[in-house]
Every structure is written in structure tokens, then in C-alpha cells.
Amino acid sequence: MPILQACAHRIDKHGDDSPATLTAGEALAASEAAESLLAAFNQSFHAKPKAWGHFVEQPGEEADTQAATDAGDESEVVPFAADTQVAAPAPSRFAASLTRYRRGELNFTDFTIQAAQDLLVLVDAQLSVGGQLWCVHNRQGETEFLTLALLHQRRGYGFDAAGQVVEVDQLNLGQLMLAARIDLTQWQRGESRQYIAHVQDRGSKKTGEAFREWLGCREGVDASAETRTLLKAFSDYVEHEDLNEEASREKTSTLIDYANAQAKRGEPITLDELSELVDETQPKAFYDYIRNQDYGLAAEIPPDKRTLQQFKRFTGRATGVSISFDSHLLGNSIEYDEERERLIIKQIPGQLKDQIKQRGQ
Predict the structure, then answer these.
(1) Which of 39, 90, 314, 338 counts the highest number of beta carbons within 10 A?
(2) What φ, ψ does residue 243 adopt, rounded to 5°?
(3) What InterPro entries does the record point to (predicted)?
């Protein structure tokens, strides 16, 4: 993942009553150490709960910019691609500066210094300590990313050349409160609503919301809800296909393994790719089932690791009986009476209910 541009700016803050100050840095030369740090950061970032979204205004139909200018419209025109302009009501300063950087009107150092200056207000209001604002523009395959993270330091220990124990400062990659990764390629194509991923620390909700506002990010997709919908669609598909227990387990493992692998890499679940993995003999079967049933899923879904970890499918067959349900239903709509060896189903599927009623008539 070659680093194209990088800068680090130090934000100092000592206690809640101390104002944050900025010491601007210069462009950093690419190095093996920086590449290793970016890889370690990505690993930690992908493991964190995240929200996904897009800048305030999505690129859509080409705006009539001249008419807006003549009418005195104060909306700023934000280009997302070299030849595309759209009118964006009240975009964030960050998004506007990023646009200028991509246009070549700002160099990377000036762009990130401006971002760091604006971030001081957030740090003053939300944090008691500062850190290094690390900004990286890198390429991974054919995709370009912008990574922003306020990295805090912690005291650690090491050995010097003489073998003596010494205290050293270490970057704390496990504590990421303000961190975002922007897929610049998706942003400029204008075909996605989930090209911004930012850490969503449930213990610091206000800080997360303030950071999202600073980015100018609007939530485009709820990763947890989308992942749950995908798992529901998969459960329905398994039931629809009337798969045996072994096949059901195998396909469930395939789904979970693929989704977890994508989450680890920080990449979305792609429905057509998943469909091919679920059934190699009928690679479009699962994809077509989702589309025909209209679950409302996008072609790409950001995986939510916590939701995936909770998913497991219980299946079993006996003479004339086949039972299959998702583990998260146990204790809710399905109860297990261990003493009497009974399953109590509280919410009977409507189709099954209708069949039973018709049988009794």
C-alpha cells in the first residue's frame, strides 16, 4: 500500500482547562516504518466499531452552477471529479479543502494543516489530551485512500544499547477515538454512499458525533442493520432451498468466513461475490433470491463484526420434522425448555400459520 503523501501535526493539550495548541509538521518522506505503521493502524481500525457515510451532498445530476451564481445562491460548488460539479448546501470546511487538494489547488501539507487547525476546536471541547494528527494519502491496488487519525501516546518500556531498561513513548493504536478512512476513488466516482468510514466509540458518543460533523459526514448506511438484513436474507434462502443440515452448516460457514475476511481487510461484502461462494454450481442463485425478495440491500454492504459474531444457525431434523433458526432468536421469539426438552416458538411464521389453519378447516 504505497504512501503517496503523509504529514503529522502535533496537537498539545494538558487537562480539561488547557487550550489545545498546534505545532504544524511538514511532509513526511515515505519509509518502510511508515508503511508498517499504516498497516498496523488499518488492522486496529478495521477491528473497531464504525459508522459509514458520505459527504453532505452526494454527486448526482449535473448542477446548473451558472444559474445558481446568477441567483446569488450561497451554496458552494464542490467538485467530486475533475469534470463534475454539484451544488452542496453548507459543505464542511474539511470537504471543501479536500476538494481543493484533489484539484491541485492546495498541497497536502497546507490541506492537512488547515484540517488540524479546525480540529483544535473539537479537541478543546471533547478531549483532555492531544496527540499526533496523522494524515496519509495512499494507494491500495487501484484505489486511493485518505486516512486521518489523532494518535495518542503512552509510556512504555524498552532496553537501550547498553541493555538498561528505559522509558519510551509509544503510539497507542488500540485507542482510536478520532479516526477516519475515506475511499477517494469511490467518492470521486459518485456511485456510493459509504465511502467514509469513521470510528464510532460507543463510550464517547458526543465525541464521535462532533468528529462526524467536523468531517461533514452524513450517515449513508447502518452497517449493523445492513448486516442483520443480509443474515436474515441468508436464513430465508436456506429455508427456501430446504437444504439439509450439512449443506446449511457449510453455507453458513462460507458466509461468515467471507464476511469476517472482508471486515478484517476493511472492505465491503459484495453480494454477487458472496453468491458465487455460497453456491458454486448456481453462482447467481443467492443474489437473484435477494433481488426477487426485495430486501432493500445495496450491492455492497459494510460488514459489522459484532453482528457477525452473534450469528449462528441451529438446525436439526427428526422424523417428519425439520427445524432451523438463527441463534439470536433463542431467548426472544424462541425459548428452550431444557427440563422438558421442548422448544417454544412465540412468533410462528405467517405462511406456516396459514397452512395449519387450512388443515383444520
Answers:
(1) 314
(2) -75, 150
(3) Nucleoid_associated_NdpA
Query: Contact at 8 Å (CB) between 162 and 176?
Result: no
Which are the contacts of 233, defined by CB distance < 8 A and separation ≥ 6?
Answer: 289, 290, 293, 295, 297
Q: What value, to the nearest 5°, has the Cα angle with vertex 295 and ends 304 and 336?
A: 65
Quick check: 1 and 140 in contact, CB under 8 A? Answer: yes
Confidence class of residue 361 from pLDDT cuts 50, 70 and 90?
Answer: low
Q: What's phi and psi for 86, nearest 5 deg?
A: -135, 150
Confidence of residue 336 (pLDDT cuts 50, 70, 90): confident
Q: Quick one: which H or E segment has residue 157?
A: strand 153-159
pTM above 0.85, yes or no: no
Q: How far is 349 from 315, CA to CA, in rounded Å?
A: 17
The band of 64, judged by pLDDT with boundaries at 50, 70 and 90, is: very low
Q: In 3D, which of 55, 51, 54 has the Cα closest to residue 89?
A: 55
Measured between alpha carbons, how far is residue 333 from residues 239, 266, 344 in Å? Answer: 17, 33, 8
Cβ-contact 21, 122 below 8 angstroms: no
First CA to last CA across the chain, in angstroms? 67
Taking the C-alpha atoms of residue 353 and residue 361, their distance in angstroms, rounded to an integer, is 13
| Residue 242 DSSP code | T
pLDDT, tens digit (0-9, with 9 covering 90-100), for 224-239: 888 989 988 998 888 7
DSSP structure class, residue 341 = T
Reduced to 3 states (helix: H, G, I; strand: E, B; else coil), residue 54 is: strand
Q: Domain boundaries in the chain? A: 3-221, 223-309
- 3-state DSSP call for residue 245? helix
Q: Is 49 helix (H, G, I), strand (E, B) or coil?
A: coil
Entry field: residues in the chain? 361
